[in-house]
Design a protein that fits this description.
CATH superfamily: NAD(P)-binding Rossmann-like Domain
Protein name: NAD(P)-dependent dehydrogenase, short-chain alcohol dehydrogenase family
CATH architecture: 3-Layer(aba) Sandwich
Bound molecules: NADP nicotinamide-adenine-dinucleotide phosphate
Family: Belongs to the short-chain dehydrogenases/reductases (SDR) family.
Number of strands: 7
Keywords: Oxidoreductase
Strand order of the largest sheet: 3-2-1-4-5-6-7
Number of domains: 1
Radius of gyration: 18 Å
CATH class: Alpha Beta
Strand content: 5-15%
Organism: Amycolatopsis rubida
Shape: globular
GO molecular function, one term: oxidoreductase activity
Length: about 260
């Protein structure tokens, strides 16, 4: 008996406009290049324009229909408004929004978490995603379709003392994902990915012993993830192979978390 033909392996994004926040490095850069390779118009947004320009060049070389670098501090409401305005001016539409920008500063103890740090963590990981999703989601709904992907964290369901404000923000992002899926359907789908520990700048500062313990004993796959290992899931959740999936929260963590997603 012959096996059925394998499903088309790659999602096509030709004609789609994809905005990736935090697209200049790490997971965001990997996803931006993944969309570029599938023919999307890719908007690379982060605080540092030069870094976005460099990734936009890579995206163009990878096959993007167009690659647009834009500076945006997602923790600032007016920057979010400006980002959406510029994308609509330059590209005419938004089909996919990936709320990936995030940060998790280390702190010695809870007492060292001052108001500025707490506010910044909430602003970058949660408030920006709220504002961008509301603006882009409204536009997608009017246009008759679109998808939003929030990059959360396994910390949302398995919080540790070393990153508690961040875990709180990412738990909020999970709640936002489900709430927006209900609010923006049926035209717009909203999903999230909870990465475990990936090798990026965000984890480069972790103590060696902590990384060794994590990958040596806690992660069933016995290593940290590589940025490229998030791309297929992002394409799936924002593309045509997941048309009955919304409000879903997928963990990609090498098996780290015990808690169900
Ligand atoms: N790596 C992990 O192990 C891991 C685990 C769980 C979840 N995550 C989540 O995955 C996402 C990406 O993480 P990553 O590891 O790729 O991080 P990363 O390598 O540190 O990159 C962070 C990206 O976000 C941008 N960014 C930071 N603050 C920003 C702001 N205020 N406004 C706009 N852009 C901002 C950075 O660019 P600029 O500096 O130019 O702004 C950069 O492009 C984050 O949401 C993170 O919480 C990562």
């Amino acid at each position: 008996m012959t096996s059925p033909a394998p499903a088309e392996p790659s999602e096509g994004f030709a004609g789609r406009v994809v905005v990736v926040t935090g697209g200049s490095r790490g997971l965001g850069r990997a996803m931006a290049l993944g969309y570029a390779a599938r023919g999307a118009t890719v908007v690379v947004a982060s605080r540092k324009l030069a870094a976005c320009e460099a990734v936009a060049q890579e995206a163009a070389a990878a096959g993007a229909a167009k690659a647009l670098p834009l500076a945006c501090h997602v923790g600032r409401w007016q920057d979010c408004d400006q980002l959406v305005r510029r994308v609509l001016e330059e590209c005419g539409r938004i089909d996919v929004l990936v709320n990936n920008a995030g940060m998790s500063p280390l702190y010695p103890s809870f007492a060292d978490v001052d108001e500025a740090l707490f506010d910044k963590v909430l602003e970058v990981n949660l408030k920006g995603a709220w504002r961008l999703s509301v603006l882009a989601g409204d536009r997608m709904k009017q246009a008759g379709g679109g998808t939003i992907l929030n990059i959360s964290s396994i910390a949302a369901v398995q919080p540790t003392a070393r990153e508690l404000p961040y875990a709180v923000a990412k738990a909020g992002l999970n709640t936002l994902t489900v709430g927006l899926a209900h609010a923006l359907g049926p035209e717009v789908r909203v999903n999230a990915i909870m990465p475990g520990a990936f090798q990026t700048d965000a984890t480069a500062g972790w103590p060696e012993a902590a990384v060794a313990e994590l990958s040596g004993t806690q992660v069933p796959l016995r290593r940290l993830g590589k940025a490229g290992e998030i791309v297929a899931a992002a394409l799936h959740l924002t593309g045509e192979s997941s048309t009955y999936t919304t409000g879903a929260i997928l963990k990609i963590d090498g098996g780290l978390a015990w808690a169900p997603a």
